[in-house]
Specification:
- The structure is a single chain.
- The chain has 8 helices and 2 strands; from the N terminus they run αααββααααα.
- With 224 residues, the chain is an all-alpha fold.
- Strands 1-2 form a two-stranded antiparallel ribbon.
- Strand 1 (72-73) and strand 2 form a beta hairpin.
Length: 224
C-alpha cells in the first residue's frame, strides 16, 4: 500500500521512476491474466488476480527475512511466515471458491451454470444425447467433488511448499554450530526459496484463473 501511494502521489502521463515500475508490474500481470482467461474476464477481475499474486508473493518473501519464525518469546515466534500457516492458505482457497461461484453465476446465469456441470457436452443431439444423459450426470457429480476439494487443494499446495522451505531453512540455521557455517549452509536453500516463493504465487494465480476459464469460457464463448 505504501509503495502504491508513493507511486501514484504525482501521476504523470509519461511515467518515470516508481510510477513507471508499478505500471510495468501491473501491465505484466494484466497481459498474463488476459492470456489465460481472455480480455473480457481479465478487464473485470484483474483486481483479484493481481492482488492475490502480490499478496502471496510478498507474504512468501517476508517469511524469508532473517529472524522471522526464529525470534521467540516463551517458545512462540514473534513473527511467522503467513503462508506457512494453514489458516491463511485455507482462507485464500475458500475465499476464491466463493468468488468463483459468484462470478460463474454472474457470467452464465444459474441455469447455464448447472447445465455446464451436469448437461451434455460435445454438441450431442437426438437419441445419443438422451442415452448419454446418465453418464453426463455422473460426470457432473465428479465435477462437484472436484469443486468441493478445490479450496483444500489450493491451500495444501501453497502451505506445503512454503512450510517445507521454512522448515529446511530452520534446520540449516543450526546445522554447523557456527554463525558463518550456518549462513553458508542456508544460502543455496535461501536462493531456492526465493524461486519457490515466486513460482507458488504464480501457480496459485494460474490455477484460479484456469478454474474460472474452464467454467465460464473465454472471449469466444462470451461472443457466442
Amino acid at each position: 500500500t505504501v509503495i502504491l501511494r508513493l507511486a501514484t502521489r504525482k501521476m504523470q502521463r509519461v511515467p518515470s521512476g516508481l510510477q513507471n515500475f508499478v505500471e510495468w508490474i501491473f501491465e505484466m500481470l494484466y497481459n498474463f491474466v488476459e492470456g489465460l482467461i481472455g480480455k473480457k474476464l481479465a478487464s473485470k477481475y484483474i483486481w483479484y488476480f493481481a492482488t492475490v499474486f502480490l499478496l502471496i508473493l510478498t507474504s512468501n518473501y517476508m517469511g524469508l527475512i532473517p529472524g522471522v519464525g526464529e525470534i521467540t518469546i516463551n517458545g512462540h515466534p514473534i513473527f511467522r511466515g503467513a503462508n506457512a500457516d494453514l489458516n491463511i492458505t485455507l482462507f485464500l482457497g475458500l475465499f476464491y471458491t466463493l468468488l468463483w461461484f459468484i462470478w460463474s453465476i454472474k457470467e452464465q446465469g444459474i441455469g447455464h451454470f448447472v447445465g455446464h456441470i451436469f448437461g451434455p457436452k460435445g454438441g450431442l443431439k437426438g437419441m445419443l444425447k438422451n442415452l448419454l444423459l446418465p453418464v453426463f450426470f455422473f460426470v457432473g457429480l465428479i465435477e462437484l467433488l472436484s469443486i468441493a476439494i478445490r479450496p483444500g487443494a489450493l491451500a495444501a499446495r501453497l502451505f506445503g511448499n512454503i512450510y517445507a522451505g521454512e522448515a529446511i531453512l530452520e534446520q540449516m540455521s543450526i546445522v554447523t554450530g557456527s554463525t558463518l557455517g550456518n549462513a553458508l549452509a542456508m544460502l543455496p536453500f535461501m536462493c531456492l526459496e526465493i524461486l519457490v516463493g515466486f513460482v507458488q504465487a504464480l501457480v496459485f494465480l494460474m490455477l484460479t484463473a484456469i478454474f474460472l476459464k474452464t467454467q465460464v469460457g473465454g472471449d469466444e464463448e462470451h461472443a457466442h
